[in-house]
Specification:
6 helices, alpha+beta, Elongation Factor Tu (Ef-tu), domain 3, 183 residues
Length: 183
């Protein structure tokens, strides 16, 4: 029987991102003590409440050993929280990580490489999410295309994890991080 993860309760400020200007979504940064209670410095899917409104979402690494959460307008409205307000969250890691959405270009490449696809189907959802995050974190189209080709080659050779991928963003040059808050 799976054990239920302990819930983490904290308060933090709901922020508007500086970019893109006028974004409908908000975000929040988890306090260091809250992030420290989670199982990973990388992506972590949680379920919980924001000022009483239930949600399930994947926390993003902030590049500093912690996490941040993108708060979509529907959740913010359900919670009755305005940007700048201090909100209360109660979260816990999900029992089973959800299957990630595979970008179309990566899906097509995998389908064209049967050996890569076989390994892909055999790895965990967390490992698939890491591969997807590694591929999509490239800023240029040519970087993404090169990473897709490299991923297919590595998967075809039986490699189950993305090579040299810093899941926390702490050791990457400006790769991952929380948005900058608007003034």
């Amino acid at each position: 029987m799976a054990t239920r993860k302990a819930r983490v309760r904290f308060r933090t400020k709901l922020l508007r991102p500086a970019e893109p200007a006028g974004a409908a979504w908000c975000f929040l940064r988890l306090p260091a003590a809250a992030s420290a209670k989670l199982p990973s410095r990388g992506l972590v899917t949680v379920e919980g409440t924001l000022d009483g409104a239930p949600f399930t979402a994947t926390l993003q690494p902030d590049g500093e050993g912690g996490h941040w959460l993108k708060v979509e307008p529907a959740l913010r409205e359900a919670a009755g929280a305005d940007p700048g307000a201090t909100v209360t969250l109660e979260i816990a890691p999900v029992e089973k990580e959800p299957e990630p959405e595979v970008p179309e270009d990566l899906r097509a490449a995998l389908e064209a490489h049967p050996a890569a696809l076989a390994t892909w189907k055999d790895i965990t959802p967390v490992a698939r999410r890491d591969w997807i995050h590694w591929v999509t974190s490239g800023r240029k189209a040519e970087t993404r295309a090169r990473r897709i080709a490299t991923a297919c080659d590595m998967l075809a050779s039986g490699k189950r994890r993305a090579c040299c991928f810093d899941r926390s963003g702490m050791y990457s040059r400006g790769g991952m991080g929380a948005p900058k808050p608007a003034p």
